[in-house]
Fold each of these.
Amino acid sequence: MSTAGKVIRCKAAVAWESNKPLVMEDIEVAPPQANEVRIKIVATAVCHSDLYQLFENKHEVGFPTVLGHEAAGIVESVGPGVTEYRPGDHVIPLFISQCRECRFCKSPKTNQCDKGWANAGRHNAMAPLESRLTCKGKKVLQFLGTGTFSEYTVVNQVAVAKIDPAAPLDKVCLIGCGICTGYGAAVNTAKVKPGSTCAVFGLGAVGLAAVMGCQAAGAKRIIAVDINPEKAEKAKVFGATDFVNPKDHSKPISQVLSEMTDGGVDFSLECVGNVGVMRSALESCVKGWGVSVIVGVNIMEEISARPLMLIAGRTWKGSLFGGFKGKDGVAKMVEAYMDKKLKVDEFITHNMTLDQVNDAIELMKEGKCIRTVLNVSPK
């Protein structure tokens, strides 16, 4: 029996409040409204941004919410005005939209979009004000406009990427956030050059994807930096030539890297979200032309640096979703994976089910995984 036009009752992991385990609940998912798409989530992964919202964002306005934003699924139904998608399409929901009509979408300089959830939501809540999810009579927010720790979700058509139906959804879900974010930060934002020297700070999925991006761009030396020595071997799989643990040195890490590279690296990428590490990454760059990119998310703290660092010719910039335009970039990255030009499977260290989401969160908190994929619904 078709579910189109009807409320769907399904399972979801609800975060009722910060710093508490998620609770598996029966929720209601309303039919898609104008320009919306309802998606059956097949697989979703746990990303550090989910943990940031749950444990580090001090604004209680973001709850209750359904976390999750790195996912893949199948279109169940579409609302009025949707012509780009139809039931059965394989898709990846996007936290960074692409309407193709606003001044940002029309510019090759950025992947920002005027019609994204952030323009209709609260940054503190990290969710739009409107939601199609309810539980126990209460509205439940959709984290980053997606909310994929649920068997079904509803997103605006500007925040959906149609992908190759042959692509395995339990793999390419990672392209919906971490892989594009890190890889693109190196290739699109930093614009790493062949023969250059790079340093990547933080070797979670985003950092490893940044390492992979540096290698793809032709960097001759890629120094992976992390305080977890167990990340060293994994970094080499993605192209790192060196591994440095700041805890092994009494000097500041920027000084260590400067001595290793005759004055500093050409490009550095901060993939932690720590303001102190952001400064260290900048100070690790060579004067004259060094470029440092902030990739890690932090909406609570301010950054600082000595002006001379920039006056001396270094560039400090930020990267959101690796500079990829949502729909176009995700589809191309899935294509690259299918053509065996992009590593994805190597990021997945654990596979679980949605009701094991709290175990997956603990694995990430303890640094015992790169990516855990939660199998939500069979295809």
Amino acid sequence: MLRSEVSASYQELSEDVERVSGNPAEEREGEMEVHEDSSSVILPDSELGTTAPSLRFSKTCLKNVFSVILLFIYLLLMAVAVFLVYQTISDFREKLKHPVMSVSYKEVSLYDAPGIAFYPGKARLVSCKHHYYDPGQPGDTECTTRRINYTDPFTNQTMKYALVVQGPRDVKKKELVFLQFHLNGTDQDFSAIDYLLFSSFQEFINSPEKAEFMKDCESSYSSWKFSGGFRTWVKMSLVKTKEEDGSETVEFKQETSVVTYIDQRTKPQSDQLFFVVFEWKDPFIQTVQAIITANPWNMIALLCGIFLALFKAADFAKLSVKWMIKIRKRHLKRSRQVMNHIN
């Protein structure tokens, strides 16, 4: 009987011990329920103090590092955008100050016949003919000439005598003008005749003040010479220059070749013979004009894109800073909660 009572008491004690220490899951559930109100962490105390804080810290630190890197990248992009704005404005102003010269060519079959003004002095005109290389054209034709006296535009005192001749016109048929002058005698060592080219013989004919017209031509165009005892062949080309104010200037370019005249007269003569030929070099009129390559619309579009990028970068930087502050506050809050839980 005593042995049965001891067995029953031992069995009850064993059941009490198992009931107290045999269900650790319930103890953890109770522990978690107790701490649920004071902290949002749902891990046990041992894991809460080691694994969770370290993971949170590493993730937060990594996010902050990436945010700082992105912020610096966008600050760098903003600096590049500001530099591009400055460079674009500088280039636009530089192009306005220094326009580019554009050259274009226009092909023509007929030129406006230029005027050729000769200043023969004591020499006289022997012959002046229009000649064509085209066999279908008629023979040589006489030149249209005008004689005029006017005051020297540079001295306003000396009277000048000019013989104005109509120049060649048909470039396709290779029209040329052949002139011969004769100087009866001279005591000079060298003899030459001056001439100048102007844009339109017809304008000279239609001008009511031919003397003033010739004075303006002499002031505007350059003059050249051809020597006695030679045949001077002049090939002309026309260059038009358009100015910024809309006006247009005309300039003649010349290529000359000189051939010695062999005088086959039996007796030596003291007189001089002058031969000159004028023709067009090619059927192309060269036009030169200044072009401003700076396009204001392109610059405006580029500036709009740059400013849009600046605003987007500034907005992103502001959001990044706010996000970093928010992450920092959240980290501090969790740290305080952990510390409160530990305490």
Amino acid sequence: MKKRAYKVLEEEETLCCCEYVNRLGERSHVVACCCDCEDLDDACDRRRTLPALVILSTFSSSTNSRFMKREPQKPESLSHVAEVFTDRIRVPWLWGGARKVDLSIIPPLILLPVLLHLAAFHFLLGMAILIALPGLVLWYYYFTHRKKGQTLFFLSLALFSLAYMYYLFITNVLPRGDVSLVQLAVVTVGVILTLVALVHTKRGPGIVRPNKEAVHSTVTYYSPQADRDPVINGGRQDVTMTVANRVGWSEHAGVELKESSQRNWCPVCRVVRPPRAGHCRICGVCVLRLDHHCVWINSCVGQVNHRSFLLTLVLFLLTSLYGISLVLQSVCPNQHLLTALLYCPGVYDQYSSALCFTCAWYSGIVTCGLLHLLVVQVINVSYNVTEREARIALRDKTARRAYWGLVVDTGVYSRGFRGNWAEFMTMGEKLNPPFPVPTELVALLEVDVQEKYKNE
């Protein structure tokens, strides 16, 4: 009989560099990744006979047995196999045991260099690849966005694109002798500042926390919560019970939330959200002044990191435009800078020049996409509207659109151009602004929360 109970490690037990706690809360070792394939057998829903020694052989034998019997594959079988497989891909780490490797970071590391080098062989091949590459990225974006799941694919693509373009600039453009040390220093400083701004943006968007004055008690339970990762803390999660929480969970209480509280109440995070805050279904948290979830940084953009997000875009665009101009001046010295991307005769006669020209085109495509994002962000800040608010207002037909949809004015929070930018530049990083709890929520019945979780 398969064990499904969570086994939480004692605090005094420490993990060596090759040990880790798997998705069931059990202690495991990286060497055991090819052993104990019961999870894969159950995921493929076949009767276990002899234990498999290799993951791939188990998966193939399980699926083949179903194909041989002409039995339909269950839709969840592949997802269960993927969960087991990704949980066992670990790298040894000195602190805290082996770390999990997200497989979504690997495709950009392989596909980007291969596609760019193939595109450098001929201009027709380059046109086909540079047209198909954005389409492939957009398809993967809509595929993952529909599943509402986090992925490191886009962050890996962004970081690797920046690093790989800089590497090619050093190895292919700099030896040509057309770039001075001062220009190289400007590009290097731009890359470093972009990464620093990105790290600051990744520090967090500003998560809505329960009001300390409304905290009633703290409960520890061992079952996964909706929209949360069940592997956190080995299956254990601590939930802070607030006055509003207990109303949300109490089925016997005769007190109902006010209309305003119901509108701002988050049933997932169990908190009353302050104005302009929103719940992100991808991150599973409520964010102060939520603008949108950006897949390129794998994080939400909110009150705390919105300014650093815009700074990251500006630094990247300036660095990218300057780098593209240097590359075009080097590989197309006889052409005007504005027309070099469209007409550069003889650039495909030498492979290194063709590779630099192809990378300039790729960087130009990325720059155009991020420039559009920056323009939309600047317009939204000028009208004091977030991307989330604009989307809701357009859905409810309560906003005014102009300039092909670039301008969306809700007219709710706008204080004029100068006032909107002053508010944006000075909005504080206080994570919990005061938000009154309705007095009606104080009269509550005693509810046994632990029994509630057992029943669930």
Amino acid sequence: MLARKSIIPEEFGLPGLVSRMPRKPVFRDRVNKARFIAKNGSCNLAHKNIREQGRFLQDVFTTLVDLKWRFTLVIFTTTFVSSWLLFAMSWWLVAFAHGDLDPKRLGAVHCVTHVKSFASAFLFSIEVQVTIGFGGRMITEQCPAAITVLILQNIVGLIINAVMLGCIFMKTAQSNRRAETLIFSRHAVIAVRNNRLCFMIRIGDLRKSMIIGATVRLQVVRKTTTPEGEVIPIHQIDVQTESALASNSLFLLAPLIICHVIDKNSPLYELSAMELQCSDLEVIVILEGVVETTGITTQARTSYVSEEIQWGHRFVPIVTEEEGVYCVDYSKFGNTVRVATPRCSARELDEKPSILIQTLQKSELSHQNSLRKRNSMRRNNSMRKGGGGGGGGSSGSLRRNNSAMLSPKVQFFTPVEGGQSVNAVT
């Protein structure tokens, strides 16, 4: 039996209408992604299956400097003790070949005086290489072989001292030690500055010795897929800052706010506040400069994932002038305050400049309402305390104060193409 056809056409049925209805974008939950750069600047990268391990031995000095301190100290101790034992064996063989170990030869001249066993040969080896010279043991001119061993031990000892002490010095004077006093704000912020949506961070230097020629570079790291289907797990995109556009280095005397204007060339141009929370991007900040005291180039790094970017916040001021001296309050270094900021993307803000005007107007109205409520509460409290006649005079003065506080008008300017501007007065 054939199915009966409906009188209503299929395109006008409920399934057809639902399929043609515009759907709101659904934002998926962000998958926890391993960050590329940790907050302390270390790289979260593991090297596996390296077949040519011999390449590290071709640059022994750099390998020793890159090792951890416990391995460096073990190698340092092992190298010196091994050289002492090796040349102790050489001195013992010289004494044995010359017959100095024979107790019957009491009046004969030895190659090395008072070397009668391996223990005494080991002590003499340490005295020669470290140049202690207690005076009990010394070499004589009877054995050319002993003179040759003395020359070799001095040369080898100088080489070992130069390499190992140089390695220790380089590890203690590494540039990343200076980077420990270069600090970054815990969070990054996105807010409106000069009528443009901006990405901002704060950097500072805890030492009085300055960083010469300091520069800041920003990079956005994300996983992307090309139109050909190639997956790039770590795609690095350079982000321009105001200092980079001016091609001048930073004068990092006091904490500075690094600003990136989110324009058409920015990778954050099409991201709104909601889309930013669902994205898996990571903003890497690299601060480079020359240490004033040592002349060594140092580099400090950190990164910000989407959860660490606060939309609609701004850093609080921390530099004040007290008794003719500028003071920095580092307890407020990472503090932010909420400000009126559109939740849309920078692209939508460029297409519809009225969004910024409406946001600022709402913020100003809410601020005025809060002032009215605060003043009314103060007026009521003063009337309760003052009572009768005194209350009338105080209330009149409060009314005059309220009118004076609410009278100023605020004017907003929004840039428009062609060099003109749209004004809104409240």
